[in-house]
Amino acid sequence: MAIISLSRILGFWCEVQADSVAIVHEGSSITFAGLEASSNRLARAYSELGVQPNDFVLVGLGNGIEFFEACFAAWKLGATPLPVSAKLPVFERQAIIEVGEPALLVGFNDGEHEGQVDSGQALPSVPPGFDPDPAISDATLAEITSASYKVMTSGGSTGRPKLIVSARSAHVDTETELLNLKKQSSILIPGPLYHNGPFLWAMESLFKGSRVVITTRFDAERTLSLIEQHKIETVYMVPTMMQRIWNLPDALRLKPDLSSLTTLWHLAAPCPVWLKEAYIEWLGADCIWELYGGTEGQGTTVISGEEWLQHKGSVGKPVAGCSMKIVDEAGNTLSAGETGEVFMRPDMGQGTTYRYIGAKAKSLEGGWESLGDIGRMDEEGYLYLSDRLADMILSGAANIYPAEVEAAIDAMDGVRSSVVIGLPHADLGNTVHAIVDVPGQNIGEAELLAHLADRLVRYKLPRSIEFVSEPLRDDAGKVRRKLFKEARV
User: How far apart are alpha carbons 227 and 203 in whole angstroms?
Assistant: First the structure.
């Protein structure tokens, strides 16, 4: 074991490979030595602004080297980074500030206000591109380890944000096997770093001394080019990215040399069976890996492409250290093959992986918790997800899962993505409404319904269809169904 504080992890790798490139972003790069020095200076600047051990530092920066510098500066002070979108509206930002009470805001300079705590006192803040006084030392700081290495945001059921504070302290074991990540390797992260998945894969790779290549935003053709250019071994994706790559003309998709790629991770949203089959045929079953779990970390499943071919549609079996079960509306445990709500529990007990600020977990007796997903388990313990419980559409007493309808829509040539919601109906309760992104394509309603008729039972077919030409999901594959529904209701 080689357990190292995150306040010292860059220094550890500087002793091994100081001049090796740590981060690459849009033509710019920084070495491990450079990242160590810049984050040391930044940490001292943050300290002068009042950041103390175990404080939260709200990091509202876009993808770039500066994002990593801010996070490592926080860790060097024994503080905890709280990443949020750089485009976060002032109202949402203020709600997060009120819940989390960060000691410092990084990356906001909109002239609206600097953010306030309940006392009304303005919080210290630094704008994007902040450069500390060159006179500030970049020497190594004293070792200190925060009680939590990250705190992530999530929408709460009340409409106010909730914070998910990791129970893991800010340290890492560089020898522990995690996510198939090898030491001193290379990874491409084309997703937004303020989301848990991209944040986790990027940081864990850096902790292992790997080169991390990031993009400002996702571009399908550019992603393949970067894999070839940097001889990327691991890439993080979500199904939306996978589909956009697959929709490229074969001449563009098959041109880059992807022979360096050993692992493609996908997660964060359901992956249509047809799309996963296509990727397995293209890149090989041993390359494709899927993970299911929440930021909370109570439970996780993992499945390789080879396993998936034997259990098509599954997201895998629970990994060591956790348990899962399927429960009905009355809280009774269901048998294999029966569909219900997925509950999970870490073997070390409830509350050992995270804590909420601003929310309470949905739990059952015995420490079982739910993230709100619907699914079933087979006789061998493999989990199959249907959809989110909150997204389910009840139409004429029938349960309809948007993810299933979206997968059928997205399988049609010319469709970039889709979002399915339920709209109120006086007789049926709700009806299925499909919003379909078809850029530059002439797809009609009749043509789409004919396509769906071969894939969905009649009651699941959309009663109304809306065609748009702008992306419906962000680069993390996330969609705010609630906002789509509110806008149309």
Answer: 19
Both tokens of 216, joined, read 């400002």
> Is the pLDDT assigned to residue 91 strictly greater than 90?
no
pTM of the model: 0.85
Strands 368-377 and 429-437: unpaired
Other Cβ atoms closer than 10 A to 331? 12
Model pLDDT, residue 173: 94
> For position 1, what pLDDT does the model report?
64
Lowest mean pLDDT among 184-198, 252-266, 360-374, 422-436: 422-436
Tell me the C-alpha distance between 192 and 199, whole Å: 8
The first and second tokens of residue 462, run together, are: 């959309």
User: Which residue bears the tokens 């003309």?
Assistant: 249
The continuous run of DSSP H or E covering 280 comes out as: helix 273-283
**Which CATH code, of 3.90.550.10, 3.30.300.30, 3.30.428.10, 3.20.20.70, is assigned to 392-488?**
3.30.300.30
Structure confidence at residue 111 as a pLDDT band (50, 70, 90)? very low
Beta-carbon neighbour count of residue 486 at 10 Å? 10
Rounded distance, CA 354 to CA 296, Å? 6
DSSP-derived 3-state class of residue 128: coil
Domain ranges of the chain: 3-207, 392-488
User: 376 - beta bridge partners?
Assistant: 384
Q: Tell which CATH classification among 3.40.50.12780, 3.60.15.10, 3.40.1190.20, 3.30.420.40 matches the domain 3-207.
A: 3.40.50.12780
Tell the residue number behind the tokens 């060097």, with chain if given: 76
Phi, psi of 285 (to 5 degrees): -65, -35
- Express the helix, strand and coil content of the chain in percent, nearest 5 each: 30, 30, 45
The predicted structure's pLDDT at residue 449? 93
Residue position matching structure tokens 């996978």: 242
Q: What is the pLDDT of residue 101?
A: 96
Residue tagged 């079933």 (tokens): 376
